[in-house]
Specification:
Elements: E1 3-4, H1 30-34, E2 41-47, H2 52-62, H3 66-80, E3 90-93, H4 98-104, H5 108-120, E4 123-124, E5 129-131, H6 146-150, E6 154-156, H7 159-162, E7 166-174, H8 178-189, E8 194-202
Parallel strand pairs: 2-8, 3-4, 3-7, 7-8
Antiparallel strand pairs: 1-2, 5-6
Amino acid sequence: MAAATDLPAAGSPLDNALALRGAVASQLCGACRVHPPAFDVTLVAADYALPIDQLVLQLKFGHRLALAALFARLLRDAVLLQPGFVLPALLCPVPLGPRRLAERGYNQSLEIAKPLARGLGVALHPRLISRVRETAAQSSVAPELRQQNIAGAFAIADPALVQGRHIGVVDDVMTSGRTLNELAATLKRHGAARVSNLVFARTPPH
């Protein structure tokens, strides 16, 4: 498991979502100290590399929904093993836009979040965050355009659930980190006290 926070500045290490090897949740890289991200910590279960990446793609595009329970179990173990990490008050998945949800038929992040919430004993709010602007997949966008692509894409359905609370955001893969950073910034604008990313797989350092 890796834990780290990412730098949200354009042209920065955020474009590679670099993890700190062997880091604990309180550690920051030097770049993150200069340009703090909107979220407070990212906890992951695995590197997005062979063979894990193929399993993630099977869940995401191959309707292998049974894999979500496995990913959730591994992510739960990674979270519970993280020294000093305080569980969020609630979990929510990274939302898909209506068009992409209709095309795919399910949100893979929600499929992971459901068993993860049960495993951690944390309330799940599937519709807390909505994607109010359809965006291109971040993986298809040039690194220098990713922030522009995702800016203003999210809205909070019930700000009262967010105010003063620790929110856990669940995702399947973290690549550039900009989607999660934009989402965390939206939560913080609505009063979230802390935002933790709980991500199954993360792009490893190059």
